[in-house]
Design a protein that fits this description.
Length: about 80
């Protein structure tokens, strides 16, 4: 893989805590690429032959998906407890 990122995606600092879980998911969706946390958000290595616009959309989608998961976790846990109780 190349040393410098092919794509460095800016992510809102408010969403930075969601990045590690999103990168884990992206790693199995795109095993040919390396995803790393960067100062701006996410650095993608090995993407030179990829559709960069699609890849950027996928990265931002996965980070936002993790944000929604975290925001709704307590609500889902309460619902499951109520249904199981």
């Amino acid at each position: 893989m190349s040393l410098s990122p092919v794509l460095d995606i800016s992510i809102d600092p408010e969403l930075h805590p969601c990045i590690p879980a999103a990168l884990l998911r992206l790693g199995y969706l795109y095993p040919e690429l390396d995803f790393l946390v960067s100062d701006k958000g996410v650095a993608v290595h090995g993407a030179s032959g990829s559709d960069l616009a699609r890849l950027k959309r996928e990265v931002t989608y996965q980070v936002y998906r993790e944000k929604v998961f975290r925001q709704t976790l307590s609500m889902r846990q309460s619902l499951y407890a109520m249904l199981a109780g």
